[in-house]
Amino acid sequence: MLPRAERALSDWLASGARGIGQLLIVKTGGFSLRHREDEARADLQVFRSPNDATELARLDDAENYRPLKTAPNLRHGWVLELADLPALRLALDLFYPGRLPALAAWEANQLATTPLRATLDRQTGMYRSAAKISDGEIDELVGRFCRSRGGEPGCLRTILWARDMTGARPSLRLPLDKFIAPVDQTERGEHVMPLLCQEACNLLVAEARKVVKDSSNRAERTGFEGSC
Amino acid sequence: MDWQQPESALLIVGHGSTVNPDSSAPSLAQAEAIREHGVFREVACCFWKEEPSLRDALLFFREPEIREVYVVPNFISEGYFTETVIPRELELEGRLTTRPGGQVWKYCEPAGNHPAVTELLLRRAREIAPGVAAAETTLLIVGHGTALNENSAVAAKREVEKISALDTYASVQNAYMEEAPLISDWARLTTTPNVVVVPFFISDGLHSYQDIPVLLGIESETTAAASQREVFRRNPHRHHGRDLYYASAIGTEPKFAEILVEQAAAFDTAALDLSPIA
Ligand code: SF4
Predict the structure, then answer these.
(1) Which CATH number fits domain A4-97: 3.30.1360.190, 1.20.1250.10, 3.40.50.970, 3.40.50.2300?
(2) Among candidates B191, B192, B168, B189, which has minimal Cα distance to B180?
(3) CB-based contact B59 A203, cutoff 8 Å
(4) A154 and A148 in contact (C-beta within 8 Å)?
(5) Do A202 and B48 touch (CB under 8 A)?
(6) What does pTM read for this prediction?
(7) Which of A72-81, A140-149, B248-257 has the lowest mean pLDDT?
(8) Beta bridge mates, A158
(9) Which of A4, A94, A97 shows the shortest C-beta gap to B62?
(10) Is A70 in the pocket of ligand 1 (CB under 6 A)?
(11) Where in chain A is the domain with CATH 3.30.1360.190?
């Protein structure tokens, strides 16, 4: 029997899914992977090992490091030819780490999601203070940071976690589609596998800490000025 | 590698970085090498600051054939990450954790604790200064040294003691980036005509690559990542009337893949301490 992630992958492809995130998957003898916006290009540089995905996913078009692999800044200009389904799975695990296992768990109704406040409350060390973020600041931060288009740099995942135990959506500034899988987060309206976010990433936690720090610095300054 | 584990998976846990692409490179490269050897049914990495996260790794290895998961921290020593962050994020209850389906996760010792690390440090030192007389050379092993990871300094001291006992170099000393003896004082700390600096880190991520050359005075500012620069290829650097040799971190050595596998194997052979993690 196929491993669960490969089974999920082959079911999605059989259902006509065109790809995942910004990747286009074309069935050839094996599989061919490229940027969805490169579909019509014939001048692509050819790669053949699934492990090449590490290098291809590392930098954006401007050669900047991509700390968040699900950000909408996948580089263009290459095509990765893969021999079979296991090779495709390995490449996707490197392009979008952890997303196939999450998708497979979601389809099996086994994907536990963690509310943002639980993630923040669990932190220790330098990130402990992130838990002090207010609901209003979460609304602004998630609306800015996780946005599929026009974020900083944004992220193409579908948010499945709630703000807290009340089940509230973390941000009212994001379109409802941001919370619904499998909507195509690139806004091309195609049938693609969703990139799921079952728990806030470390980048968002780090950003929450920054928001708390900035607002306490502001409060200190205002307090100081107020006492003059 | 004779040890075969077709019913087991290996999970390599690295630190990763949001700013430096070199930080996760050693873990990814070693995972690729171990996968090719076919020791385990599956090999995966997860990172504190990159994807996949440690939380994502909770969803890995869902094949019923995988009965055991060896978790090997790709860290230089025990410390805050191995004792607090990894157990918390991976929901480990101690050295052994049984998941609801019966799968057992085995929490192994960090890579840096492996005895072969000493040999790797020595090999690095020899490689970057070929033909340089050890009797006229000081070897500096550089650790980070912060309150948050006090054990990394202890581990660096242990390596210095082991290498000193071999009586090869004129002098073997520790130096740190953030506490005394400071690496930036290297010229004052040493008297020999040659000084070889080997960082005691897994990767040429932030600490080793971007900060140490500046502290040594061989670069004026921290710029791009290691993979995009030249500093290791310009040895020796002539400073303060001495020849200074600077090595890259040991985690990318091909031998490191064996160390990760052996840390997993050692879990089964070691007398088990089943007490909860501190
Ligand atoms: S929290 Fe999830 S949706 Fe937001 S940026 Fe991180 S990975 Fe993307």
Answers:
(1) 3.30.1360.190
(2) B189
(3) no
(4) yes
(5) yes
(6) 0.91
(7) B248-257
(8) A196
(9) A4
(10) yes
(11) 4-97
Whether B216 and B185 have beta carbons less than 8 Å apart is answered as no
Check CB contact of B92 with chain A, cutoff 8 Å.
no
Tell the burial category of B123 from Cβ atoms under 10 Å away from its Cβ (0-12, 13-18, 19+).
middle
Domain A116-227 has CATH 3.30.70.2320: yes
Q: What is the pLDDT of residue B278?
A: 46
Say how many Å lie between the CA of residue A200 and the centre of ligand 1. Answer: 6
Q: Residue B91 is encoded by which pair of tokens? A: 């929901």
ipTM above 0.90, yes or no: yes
Structure-token match 């000084």, residue found: B195
What is the A135 CA–ligand 1 centroid distance (Å)? 17
Q: Read off the pLDDT of residues B155-182 as tens digits, 9 standing for 90 and up.
A: 889 999 999 999 999 999 999 888 889 9
Chain B hits for A111, CB-CB cut-off 8 Å, are 59
Q: Are the beta carbons of B163 and B120 closer than 8 angstroms?
A: no
- Topology, domain B117-252: Rossmann fold (3.40.50)
Task: Confirm if B195 and B229 have CB atoms less than 8 A apart.
Answer: no
